[in-house]
């Protein structure tokens, strides 16, 4: 199972939108947030969460998605082991208190387990509470399919689907309005037409640049996705490309040629945002989901209506509402 | 560091060349093993090994390759974090002695670090001692950069580079002429203009379809890469798309929507070939190297000279000859 389409908090919001009583659910969540959300509990211990089941896991990434219960409510926990840094490796070698166990050796090769001190070996932990059935569904393993979407398919299937789903991307507006995560902002250009906020993606722990992952969220609010982009957006796209790379170069000492800059189609939420990652195997950077900003600018410069005319191929999970729409409205080869 | 450009049969051949003097080195190692190898030391502690440098690391896999010194001799250490199991997750939740630190929360999402007890969070550790220069080279990273190649760059830099490099793709012609790997052919259309041979890629063991990986090599010999493709090639591309997916559906029971079909730019050899993979995290399927066949056909249908006019972004390793050419002939931001 590809991790490419699994790992975004954005999708949670999108899926929450699909829930039948979404307004009610949202009200309920806000109320609960004030009162009983796990995130406000002092001295939270994991033993307060009851294990229910493994939803999915990625042995390659060393991550696991877990369903749990907290005070009778659903919780999703994502554990992910963290990458090494030079500093953490140096400490592993220099501190004499890490125990080492040999399993076998053969000629020059020896196989061991090291048991580092906890502070050298933390687990990145994301907790979603209260979680809905949609969150559980999102993080469960699901088969993927590719859909080739024509301009007509977009008009007849995808766009009505997007417009019929009540928006619930408050967390995006919280960021844009400086109500949340203000201290996480790396760079902001406040211009309402060309501006954006750049901040670390939740998938990145911010410690080492070899898996750097930032997201630029544009201030302009009416751009749903790649499909909306045309010549009038070139100044915005070029501004994000230029100022985003400058900010990253200044803060993290990575040059533009050391960055993969791209958007997703389908995105996990329909407000234009651009991913900036180091050249590691980032989730969502495969060809069926990622579109390089350099390619987007090239395409629009050459052909202003490229994204209105083109067929675009993307991956959907079998349980996605959009997959069901394509199956329902169009002869589809699955 | 991305594995995407490291994993091809070409590279294997290159690596094999590096081990020409390995017999001599092996004799030496056996002798040393009897005497001073680290693996025979009782109560080995990592602090006995002096840190020299990080050779390579994989943030995706959470692994790192380290050069060290032990008694004045070179050591390579490979640390790799281990996947989660249901048992380890249950213990993480059930044991009350794992500390948890909150970094921030926003609505229902909270970001934490868990510090598990060491015995729940061991590191797989491989130690190679004594290590030779060949080991150091084998485990060293080569930095990747993205290059945005304009039509002029292609004409002035890339094309002369391709044409000046002595071709050594006899193995491709051996396949096309039925001199090698004949028994591996899954499907052949022998037409000299539209035809191709479909066979498993070396990276696939042919056993299970969740990591299916096949390659279609076209019979026509004058198509170097994506840059050469135009309207006259649409029949060839559509033929490979149609007959390739039919053959895979028949033999492996995977539908077209369960396949990622793409070419590489830059390719690892300059004779048109098309990758067919299942929707797993295949090496070389990231956006900076892979171009979906569906997108290529779309682009050429809409704009016949798309690949002659466009800027194309691709990844190169620092030691690649093509990287050197771009550095030499063009102002480059590294």
Automatic annotation (TrEMBL), chains A, B:
InterPro entries in UniProt: DcpS/DCS2 (IPR008594), HIT-like_sf (IPR036265), Scavenger_mRNA_decap_enz_N (IPR011145)
EC number from the UniProt entry: 3.6.1.59
Hydrolase listed as a keyword: yes
Reaction catalysed by this enzyme: a 5'-end (N(7)-methyl 5'-triphosphoguanosine)-ribonucleoside in mRNA + H2O = N(7)-methyl-GMP + a 5'-end diphospho-ribonucleoside in mRNA + 2 H(+)
Regions of compositional bias (Basic and acidic residues) in chain numbering: 1-13
Residues covered by region (Disordered): 1-31
A GO-annotated cellular component: P-body
GO biological process: deadenylation-dependent decapping of nuclear-transcribed mRNA; mRNA processing; RNA splicing
Pfam family, one: DcpS
Cellular localisation: Cytoplasm; Nucleus
Positions with a binding annotation for substrate: 171, 181, 201, 203, 264-275
Function: Decapping scavenger enzyme that catalyzes the cleavage of a residual cap structure following the degradation of mRNAs by the 3'->5' exosome-mediated mRNA decay pathway.
Similarity comment text for this entry: Belongs to the HIT family.
The protein, known as: m7GpppX diphosphatase
Species: Dinothrombium tinctorium
